[in-house]
């Protein structure tokens, strides 16, 4: 239980969600299967442009690498510039130089505006926004959960996708040819909460509302919006679950994790579709994860 709680300061603004040094290296288990990525090269137009938030680690980093390999121009963002540069270097290894790295806090409106302006200035258009940046929370009773922690989780997991969606929708509607795709990284916690996850589950449930409204409002403009709701995936955010995760009946048991490439491959399937085809929702999780019924 202590492991799951962490300290409150860990969840306040500015805290990194993945330990320094936890950078996957080529050949590691987390790298995307090259044969698999090669298959996607035939599915995506080489001139397409993507923005990925939370690309300094985990799912965002590996999605950036896969899109780069598939010939996309990729704008990557997160707060930690060094870790972001490492992602960019990993893309260079894959011989893709069409990458712009912009470090900043995605919850800040001025930064979000400059991110999209710079993207258009450099690459001329936008085809995909992957709202991926996110954070979890300390699992403590609501009586002890400071408002600042709750708001911080909401800011990263909900306000930031709102700010980015706002900018992307403007571009998608006005560019020629018009249209585009947004993928929101939700969670199975958008469907069923973990114990003591007030902030995280609230943010992810609310994200579903943003996803559905965006899909509805985007329809006349050939703009599509997907929510990918994933279960335990091997990243800095979730690795602690393999040691032990609090269950609804009070037990703490280790939960299985899946390799990040399964998430990325699912995302690459969606981005390979034309904009007149939508995937509204996708749930991907380890088969043995105690999710259905949360037990
Ligand atoms: N891993 C799982 O099992 C799992 C399960 C369900 C859902 N998800 C969702 O998947 C998404 C990605 O998670 P992950 O597992 O890849 O986590 P991760 O490895 O911890 O990566 C989180 C990313 O978000 C960025 N970020 C956090 N706060 C930010 C801020 N204020 N401004 C800009 N960037 C910020 C981090 O970058 P900096 O620290 O450099 O800013 C990092 O790049 C999240 O939305 C998460 O909720 C993950």
TrEMBL record:
An example molecular function term from Gene Ontology annotations: oxidoreductase activity
CDD domains (alphabetical): SDR_c
Keywords attached to this entry: NADP, Oxidoreductase
InterPro entries, alphabetized: NAD(P)-bd_dom_sf, Sc_DH/Rdtase_CS, SDR_fam
Region ranges (Disordered): 1-25
Signal peptide: none
Pfam families in UniProt: adh_short
Superkingdom, natural source: Eukaryota
UniProt family annotation: Belongs to the short-chain dehydrogenases/reductases (SDR) family.
Name this protein carries in UniProt: Short-chain dehydrogenase/reductase SDR
Native source organism of the sequence: Marasmius oreades (fairy-ring Marasmius)
């Amino acid at each position: 239980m202590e492991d799951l709680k962490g300290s409150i300061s860990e969840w306040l603004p500015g805290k990194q969600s993945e330990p320094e040094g936890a950078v996957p290296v080529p050949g590691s288990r987390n790298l995307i299967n090259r044969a698999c990525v090669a298959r996607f090269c035939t599915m995506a137009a080489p001139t397409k442009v993507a923005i990925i938030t939370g690309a300094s680690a985990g799912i965002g980093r590996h999605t950036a690498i896969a899109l780069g390999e598939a010939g996309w121009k990729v704008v990557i963002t997160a707060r930690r510039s060094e870790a972001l540069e490492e992602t960019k270097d990993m893309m260079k290894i894959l011989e893709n130089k069409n990458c712009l790295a912009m470090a900043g806090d995605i919850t800040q409106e001025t930064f979000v505006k400059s991110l999209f302006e710079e993207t258009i200035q450099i690459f001329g258009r936008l085809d995909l926004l992957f709202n991926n940046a996110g954070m979890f929370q300390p699992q403590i009773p609501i009586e002890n959960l400071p408002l600042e922690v709750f708001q911080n989780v909401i800011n990263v997991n909900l306000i930031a996708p709102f700010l980015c969606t706002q900018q992307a929708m403007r571009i998608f509607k006005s560019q020629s040819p018009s249209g585009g795709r947004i993928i929101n990284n939700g969670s199975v916690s958008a469907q069923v909460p973990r114990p003591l996850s007030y902030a995280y589950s609230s943010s992810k449930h609310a994200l579903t509302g943003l996803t559905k409204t965006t899909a509805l409002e985007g329809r006349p403009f050939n703009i599509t919006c997907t929510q990918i709701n994933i279960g335990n995936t091997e990243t800095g955010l979730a690795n602690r679950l393999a040691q032990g995760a609090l269950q609804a009946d009070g037990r703490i048991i280790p939960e299985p994790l899946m390799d990040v490439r399964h998430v990325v491959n699912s995302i690459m399937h969606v981005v390979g579709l034309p904009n007149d085809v939508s995937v509204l929702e996708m749930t991907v999780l380890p088969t043995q994860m105690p999710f259905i019924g949360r037990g």
